[in-house]
């Protein structure tokens, strides 16, 4: 059972900044890109990178997420020895509790990790949109004989104060970590993707568990502690597309990036292009019929998936499974999730429409100034946004 590397995906966050999109659903399970859910990108990266053992740590509103992942067959992770395993909080002989932080979540699943006696542990987030070769990062990690390797991406200097910033020497060895600095010294922002030597991480996790002042978080506690103790820590510079879709604006921006006429290219050889046959994004598929575009419909620069029926106008938008757009209705610069009905003459502009919404005839949702969000199952009539 011994493995060189296994992965744990942190997928238990509430995602409150996504507002009504996560009221009854975990953030990693939110629909994205028409036929996917956010976690599909991380799971597909694991599959495409030949990471054969993946644990998914869940907590908040996990029903849809658990159902979506199932036994992992969509990502070729339904293995007899390995594959994907759902890891929710549990009660043991001495009781149990919710995960109190990202590091605590990993510590409470130490028995799962130990089953495979890995040399290295890959820690991932389930709510980022990107494509990445994890084995290339592992190669860098081994070449540097690093105890910890942290994936970083360059951000504009004016935005650096929003991130955890890694300050490094020329060889990318980290000498300082600054959490959201007011005056950043570099633009190397942490992506929340880590490779640890498992024996070294295990020591620090057990020690951190005894620290009552700790929040048991990787970014706030574990990384600073390991840096202070002199562990060999390196930054791995990732040059491809990456976005944390933890806010309404970032979710909307990433969705619009999917239909950008000039898709983001990457020196890593992988971009955000969903049509790349060499690095597919896999997902559980529903049994919907082919989409239908009516004879008087107008569709431009949009993603429209199975089960959709379009009789009106769809411009620069993403339509998920089973969306119906009535005659003379208009959807512009918007994301419309599954099984939503936009009735005749209705208009949807700059909006994110949750699943199973009904927008009544002649209603107007959204405007050009800001993003309007409609929660799952709403029946909307009149003018909103």
TrEMBL record:
Keywords: ATP-binding, Carbohydrate metabolism, Glycogen biosynthesis, Glycogen metabolism, Nucleotide-binding, Nucleotidyltransferase, Transferase. Alpha-D-glucose 1-phosphate binds at residues 99, 164, 179-180, 190. GO terms for biological process: glycogen biosynthetic process. Residues 297-369 form the Glucose-1-phosphate adenylyltransferase/Bifunctional protein GlmU-like C-terminal hexapeptide domain. CDD domains: ADP_Glucose_PP, LbH_G1P_AT_C. It catalyses: alpha-D-glucose 1-phosphate + ATP + H(+) = ADP-alpha-D-glucose + diphosphate. Gene3D superfamilies: Hexapeptide repeat proteins, Spore Coat Polysaccharide Biosynthesis Protein SpsA, Chain A. Its EC number is 2.7.7.27. The record marks 59, 98 as: Could play a key role in the communication between the regulatory and the substrate sites. The keyword ATP-binding applies. Pathway: Glycan biosynthesis; glycogen biosynthesis. Residues 7-259 form the Nucleotidyl transferase domain. GO terms for molecular function: ATP binding; glucose-1-phosphate adenylyltransferase activity. Belongs to the bacterial/plant glucose-1-phosphate adenylyltransferase family. Homotetramer. Involved in the biosynthesis of ADP-glucose, a building block required for the elongation reactions to produce glycogen. Catalyzes the reaction between ATP and alpha-D-glucose 1-phosphate (G1P) to produce pyrophosphate and ADP-Glc. This is Glucose-1-phosphate adenylyltransferase. The gene is glgC.
